[in-house]
């Protein structure tokens, strides 16, 4: 291809690209004007006039829509971070079991991964909530000296209360993501050459110690990128909270759209808040990745 | 080079496609007639109002209202495409033009009607409802006060959510709302014992209870938290469609006032044709006056409507009457002459 042909092609492609974006924006503006909507964010500061079941910071129904959205974002953050930790722990254990020497554990973990990965998350969440937690009848509740309380209202643990909705979402998301994380971990471990295993065994290191000290550090660079994308998926999947009655940002957005009729503004807010949440995850993982690579260089 | 040419051709096609979508600022009424099909937004999940039967057809009061509109606009009450919508989707569906009109248990409120709010317009009320609370009989809860500090299952994104909050806040009672996206989940949460009470419009509570294993173990409290006038809705900028919808609903009520039913409509038309002195009847049935044309319909739209759905009373009896699956006493929904509030302005 000649140089001027190349330039022509580049120009053509960018023309098409910007043209498409232009058409979309133009369409949106025309339609907004046609339906008499037009952008406006002043409603954000009007009182929300709906109550919430859980709020990490003080909230009443006379607080503003903006505050309600922020509470929703915190609720999302709470469930995302806690299931991120739980899923990583679970996933790592299962990943180890899947690559370990014990054939029973290998079989069980393979079965776990198969079942969890072949069924939809929405179904699993509904199962944990409607069958798992709400299935706990009042006469069945477990109580240990007022410290630990389980009923279909949730779990009370030394003054802290976790609602059934939060727990179902936490458990559902963690278990679902853990199956994927286990596979990422397994892939990472398998990427380390067999020679490394033989090497630490010949030095007389115990199997577990060798896995943690020798194999895992070498597997991490292969694991981290896969892990990051699983974390991002987890954050996005948390919007399924609406199916189990948890007040995350998506559920609160839903209510606000209905009360104010500001669908486009609300979706923009939703997009931005997820972008922020996921950028937070991506950047943290990036830092971890860099630290690992750095430590490997000098070791 | 060939790739570039095909790209430019594709873009041109795209531009042409987009150009046509932004046209047509005239009424949707013409669009419906040209399409020869009415796209009607319904719920599809509320027995008695709109419910998907096992044979795949929709049934209920809201569905019959769609049929009346189709009969009036197109002339055939079967030319309808139903769109089941959730409470949260319904207004966006109107504003984007995905549906022509909404007949889905929608409460008529100021912010929904106004151009500064949802920007809709409402047809006359087809069912006067009120929000209530349902509790288990064994719980011994008998009023709002007994529900202090309890959890209440509520559907999100509806006026229901706001009303329950207003009621509890004005009585200074703390409570925990457990919000679900649709009524089936609210029912599941309530039956599983997550909440002490569930709240919704009283008609929906009655409809939901009819499907319970032991309907008699649940009671609907006497407290009525709100007025819920349920009405069909359409885009607030389309005055022509709104006028047509308004008078189709009034024709159903007016027909009941005049004792015109599905079975005697043909007879009434014959009588009107033979007797020129029966002026109001002749105007109503479209023989004189040309009233239908004024609202963009055919002059005999009333005849088409009544012969396909019957009058308002017949529709009510069919879906919510004593012998129906979801009996709800007619109460406020009676004609004004029988102690209710349903009334039609004159067809002049």
Characterize the structure shown.
Chain A has 299 residues and is mostly helical. Helix content of chain A is 71%, strand content 5%. Chain A has 2 domains: 1-36; 37-295, Orthogonal Bundle (MetI-like fold), CATH 1.10.3720. Chain A has 9 helices and 4 strands. A 4-stranded antiparallel beta sheet of chain A has the order 1-2-3-4. In chain B, helix 3 packs across helix 9 and helix 9 crosses helix 13. Chain B has helices at 2-21, 28-35, 61-73, 90-95, 110-113, 159-170, 183-191, 202-209, 239-257, 265-274, 279-284, 291-294, 301-309, 312-320; strands at residues 38-42, 45-46, 50-52, 58-59, 80-84, 101-102, 120-122, 127-129, 131-136, 151-155, 176-180, 197-201, 218-220, 228-230, 233-235. Helices cover 39% and strands 16% of the residues of chain B. Chain B is an alpha/beta fold and 348 residues long. The chains are: A mainly alpha (299), B alpha/beta (348). At the A-B interface, helix 1 and helix 8 of A face helix 1, helix 4, helix 6, strand 11 and helix 7 of B.
Helices and strands, with pairings:
The complex is a heterodimer of chains A (299) and B (348).
Chain A: H1 3-34, H2 65-99, H3 103-118, H4 121-133, E1 142-144, E2 148-151, E3 154-157, E4 160-163, H5 164-191, H6 194-202, H7 207-237, H8 249-260, H9 263-298
Antiparallel strand pairs in A: 1-2, 2-3, 3-4
Helix pairs in contact in A: 2-3, 2-5, 2-8, 3-5, 4-5, 5-7, 6-7, 7-9, 8-9
Chain B: H1 2-21, H2 28-35, E1 38-42, E2 45-46, E3 50-52, E4 58-59, H3 61-73, E5 80-84, H4 90-95, E6 101-102, H5 110-113, E7 120-122, E8 127-129, E9 131-136, E10 151-155, H6 159-170, E11 176-180, H7 183-191, E12 197-201, H8 202-209, E13 218-220, E14 228-230, E15 233-235, H9 239-257, H10 265-274, H11 279-284, H12 291-294, H13 301-309, H14 312-320
Parallel strand pairs in B: 1-5, 1-6, 10-11, 10-12
Antiparallel strand pairs in B: 2-3, 3-4, 7-15, 8-14, 9-12, 9-13
Helix pairs in contact in B: 3-9, 3-13, 9-13
């Amino acid at each position: 291809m000649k140089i001027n042909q190349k330039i022509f092609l580049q120009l053509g492609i960018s023309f098409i690209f910007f043209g498409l974006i232009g058409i979309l924006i133009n369409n949106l503006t025309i339609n907004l004007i046609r339906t008499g909507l037009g952008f406006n964010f002043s409603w954000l500061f009007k009182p929300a006039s709906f109550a919430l079941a859980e709020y990490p910071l003080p909230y009443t129904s006379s607080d503003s829509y903006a505050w309600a959205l922020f509470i929703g974002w915190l609720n999302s953050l709470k469930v995302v971070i806690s299931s991120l930790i739980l899923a990583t722990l679970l996933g790592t254990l299962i990943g180890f079991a899947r690559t370990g020497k014990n054939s029973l554990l290998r079989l069980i973990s393979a079965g776990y991964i198969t079942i969890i990965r072949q069924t939809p998350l929405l179904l699993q969440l509904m199962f944990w909530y409607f069958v798992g937690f709400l299935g706990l009848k009042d006469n069945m509740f477990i109580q240990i000296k007022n410290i630990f309380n389980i009923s279909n209202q949730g779990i009370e643990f030394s003054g802290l209360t976790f609602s059934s909705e939060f727990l179902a979402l936490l458990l559902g998301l963690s278990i679902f993501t853990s199956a994927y994380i286990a596979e990422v971990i397994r892939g990472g471990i398998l990427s380390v050459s067999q020679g490394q295993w033989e090497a630490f065994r010949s030095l007389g290191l115990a199997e577990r110690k060798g896995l943690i000290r020798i194999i895992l550090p070498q597997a991490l660079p292969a694991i981290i990128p896969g892990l990051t994308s699983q974390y991002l998926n987890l954050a996005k999947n948390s919007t399924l909270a609406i199916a189990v009655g948890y007040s995350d940002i998506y559920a609160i957005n839903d209510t606000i759209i209905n009360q104010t009729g500001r669908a486009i503004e609300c979706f923009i807010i939703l997009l931005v808040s997820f972008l922020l949440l996921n950028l937070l995850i991506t950047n943290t993982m990036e830092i971890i990745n860099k630290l690992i690579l750095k430590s490997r260089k000098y070791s | 080079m060939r790739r570039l040419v095909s790209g430019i051709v594709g873009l041109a096609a795209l531009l042409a496609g987009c150009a046509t979508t932004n046209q047509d600022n005239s009424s949707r009424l013409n669009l419906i007639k040209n399409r020869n099909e009415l796209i009607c937004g319904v719920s599809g999940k509320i027995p008695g109002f709109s419910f998907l039967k096992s044979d795949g057809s929709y049934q209920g009061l809201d569905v019959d209202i769609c049929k009346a509109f189709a009969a009036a606009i197109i002339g055939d009450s079967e030319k309808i495409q139903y769109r089941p919508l959730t409470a949260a989707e319904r207004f966006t569906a109107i504003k984007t033009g995905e549906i022509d009109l909404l007949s889905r248990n929608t409460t008529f409120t100021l912010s929904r009607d106004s151009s500064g709010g949802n920007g809709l317009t409402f047809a006359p009320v087809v069912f006067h409802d009120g929000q209530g609370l349902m509790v288990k009989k064994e719980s011994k809860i008998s009023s709002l006060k007994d529900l202090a500090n309890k959890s209440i299952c509520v559907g999100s994104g509806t006026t229901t959510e706001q009303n329950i909050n207003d009621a509890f806040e004005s009585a200074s009672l703390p409570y925990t709302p457990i919000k679900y996206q649709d009524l089936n989940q609210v029912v599941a949460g309530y039956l599983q014992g997550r909440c002490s009470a569930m709240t919704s419009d009283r008609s929906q509570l009655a409809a939901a209870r009819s499907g319970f294993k032991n309907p008699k173990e649940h009671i609907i409290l006497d407290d009525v938290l709100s007025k819920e006038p349920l009405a069909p809705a359409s885009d607030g900028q389309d005055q022509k469609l709104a006028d047509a919808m308004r008078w189709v609903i009034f024709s159903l009520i007016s027909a009941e006032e005049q004792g015109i039913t599905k079975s005697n409509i043909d007879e009434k038309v014959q009588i009107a044709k033979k007797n020129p002195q029966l002026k109001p009847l002749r105007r109503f049935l479209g023989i004189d006056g040309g009233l239908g044309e004024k609202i963009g319909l055919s002059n005999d739209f009333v005849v088409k409507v009544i012969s396909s759905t019957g009058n308002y009373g017949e529709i009510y009896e069919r879906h919510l009457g004593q012998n129906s699956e979801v009996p709800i006493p007619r109460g406020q929904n009676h004609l004004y002459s029988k102690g209710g509030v349903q009334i039609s302005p004159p067809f002049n």
